């Protein structure tokens, strides 16, 4: 499997979350956006919903925490059943300690960068992580336009991953669609979050398959596009 497609539940119908989660079985992970109305100006869901979702679907949960003080809260999401927990670099007080704690609990540890946060200051931290998330919109809402200006950051991050020979997944999130996924893949991303491009269609599972085909074509031949 060279690429991964993670539908974002933020664009789903929240009154039918279990059904919406099952509608994308075949996706690699279900992306769950946790927002606290402080780190971002929006409020979504928390630990009890993640716990219920983990029981409702066989698809592993990729929890993206857009919250203040992830050092305090992130371990609770690992405990609730998330297989991958992403905290924001801008919010974490002790990212290395937090990543180690998440890994110790058996979750994949991931860190996200907002559009204005550069990757370079975090180069030495990368071996502590299983995934790096580059936001391709300002976090907080689904359905925003993809920020093309993030493509150089994706390329620079892929170069760092290759230079240090790391097994680090590179995720992009925000405005990822049939119109933009190939540019992200060519720049070096291998994990793609898509909300409206999946749940905004009549057939979410087919949308996942189609995005996967596009991303696979765009990465075929890339030296880093090997099995996860
Ligand atoms: O984290 C976020 C938004 O902050 C994302 O996960 C969105 O849910 C992606 O939605 P689309 O841009 O794909 O519609």
TrEMBL record:
Protein name as it appears in the record: Ribulose-phosphate 3-epimerase
InterPro entries hit by this protein: Aldolase_TIM, Ribul_P_3_epim, Ribul_P_3_epim-like, RibuloseP-bd_barrel
Annotated binding of a divalent metal cation, by residue: 31, 33, 64, 173
GO biological process: pentose catabolic process; pentose-phosphate shunt
GO terms under cellular component: cytoplasm
Annotated positions binding substrate: 8, 64, 140-143, 173-175, 195-196
Family matches, as PANTHER family: RIBULOSE-5-PHOSPHATE-3-EPIMERASE
Gene: rpe
Annotated pathway: Carbohydrate degradation
Species the sequence originates in: Streptomyces cinnamoneus
Cofactor comment text: Binds 1 divalent metal cation per subunit.
CDD domains: RPE
Gene Ontology MF, one: D-ribulose-phosphate 3-epimerase activity
Cofactor(s) needed by this chain: Mn(2+); Fe(2+); Co(2+); Zn(2+)
Domain of life of the source: Bacteria
HAMAP family listed in its UniProt record: RPE
EC number annotated for this UniProt entry: 5.1.3.1
NCBIfam families for this protein: PRK05581.1-4, rpe
Active site: 33, 173
Pfam families for the chain: Ribul_P_3_epim
Family statement: Belongs to the ribulose-phosphate 3-epimerase family.
Keyword field: Carbohydrate metabolism, Cobalt, Isomerase, Manganese, Metal-binding, Zinc
Catalytic activity: D-ribulose 5-phosphate = D-xylulose 5-phosphate
Task of the protein: Catalyzes the reversible epimerization of D-ribulose 5-phosphate to D-xylulose 5-phosphate.
């Amino acid at each position: 499997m060279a690429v991964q497609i993670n539908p974002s539940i933020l664009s789903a119908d929240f009154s039918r979350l279990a059904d919406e989660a099952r509608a994308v079985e075949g996706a690699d992970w279900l992306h769950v956006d946790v927002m606290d109305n402080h780190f971002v100006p929006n409020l979504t869901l928390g630990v009890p919903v993640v716990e219920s979702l983990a029981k409702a679907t066989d698809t592993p949960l990729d929890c993206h925490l857009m919250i203040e003080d992830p050092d305090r809260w992130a371990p609770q999401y690992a405990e609730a059943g998330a297989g991958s927990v992403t905290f924001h670099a801008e919010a974490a007080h002790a990212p290395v300690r937090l990543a180690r704690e998440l890994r110790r609990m058996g979750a994949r540890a991931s860190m996200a960068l907002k559009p204005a946060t550069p990757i370079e200051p975090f180069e030495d931290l990368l071996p502590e992580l299983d995934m790096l998330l580059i936001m391709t919109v300002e976090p907080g809402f689904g359905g925003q336009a993809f920020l093309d200006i993030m493509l150089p950051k994706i390329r620079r991050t892929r170069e760092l991953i290759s230079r240090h020979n790391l097994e680090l997944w590179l995720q992009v999130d925000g405005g990822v669609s049939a119109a933009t996924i190939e540019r992200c893949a060519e720049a070096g991303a291998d994990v793609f979050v898509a909300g409206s491009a999946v749940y905004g269609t009549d057939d979410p599972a087919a949308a996942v398959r189609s995005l996967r085909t596009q991303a696979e074509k765009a990465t075929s031949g890339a030296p880093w596009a090997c099995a996860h």
